[in-house]
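Thread: Modeling a multi-component assembly for a lab meeting

Hi all, long-time lurker, first post. My supervisor asked me to bring a structural picture of a complex we are working on to next week's group meeting, and I have zero experience with this. I have the sequence lines for every component (430 residues in total). Could someone generate the structure of the whole assembly? Inputs are pasted exactly as I received them:
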Amino acid sequence: MRQLILFFAKYRSTLLLLVFVLIALLRHSLKNPLAEHRLNNVGFGAVATVHNGLSGWKQYWRLEAINEELARENARLRSGGTRASANHFSNSTDYDFIPARIVDYSYTKRNNYIIVHAGRRDGIHPGMGAMSANGWIGSVVEVSDAYSHITPVLHSKGNIGARISGKGLGELHWDGTDPSWATLIDIQRENRPMPGDSVYSFTRTSVGPSTLTGIVISAVQNNEDLTWTAKVALSADYKNMNWLYISKLKDAGSLDSLQVPAL
Amino acid sequence: MTIVKNILWLVAVLLVQWGFLQDLPLTVYGNPYLYLWFFLWLPFGVTRMGLYAIAFTVGSIMDAFEQSGGAHTLACLALVTAKPWVENALIGYRKSDNNEGVSHLALVPYLTTSSVLVLLHHTVLFTAENYGFDNPVLLVVRIVISSLITLVLLAITHALFSKKYAA
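Re: Modeling a multi-component assembly
Sure thing. I ran the full set together rather than chain by chain. Output:
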């Protein structure tokens, strides 16, 4: 026993370091945006509240950009066009769109995030889709009473299904460099994407409506399986975001009842 | 009194980090992390256990704000673990009762020591954030560019707060 106490006394600083490293590694490995991670949930509400306080200060410097974004959105709404405009998702009658003010976001990391000031009490749940006036953004992964954490496309696990009208499906993923473009892979060889083609999100019905996500810039064919890979200019401006809309399926209950596995 | 002063410096550094620097649209290849200045400010006399506890606390605060799991905590722990060795190798003998830190050195030894520590911190941070060495070229670009921007900001901070800048 004495030896044990002496051992702990001698190596106490190294042991403390080991404990801290293990806690950090555990926390980091649990930070999986596609799964529940209760350990990382601790304090999420408090942190989001601080972000909210700081965002007031930061938004003051972005007022010009906010005004421009609102003016453009207003002009689109007044024009009443139903063509494939950026915010065409609002024409969908199957969803309610909950407006949410962004309190913090990042776009320079490999794994980016967005925190919005709307949460459980506004009717938001994990799994709902998020979109800006310009296009698809990502999906909600974590919710507190007043705030929500969104994993955007700009994330190593933010891949989504995407489609080009009349040209089938592919998978949209971001390679971690420029936040203004992403790559659409696995498009069938007979459906060659052309520059200017619109790319729409293709997610489960409960997540959100099909939403404009980007425009094809160029495409190359893979030599091995002859599928097409397209470079897509993302329609959402991830460097300058102020408000998002969270899509909520109006009749989610009926859909849930269909998805109950047969006994 | 020294503890209160250090806590106030920590709060100030974190506020500057989050109030000004976090969304700075300098580059898409990472953020500057000025909060590392706090570790350079810490006196040489702080014990290893004290350094570990401070690194864990500061790293956890950054992780909570940046939604980065434990990446900042791991990077801060790596920094404070290497800090005494780097200081010994680059600065050498110091009086045991020295109540000043790296930030009180003249510009050249300050920047030399900071460069090694910042590079180590950013390497651990971005590798952890990247969940490994996937896309290594981009990883290296992120580490180098972020380290350079952080070092420029640390040099400016040194010019503003160091007593020995002119030395």
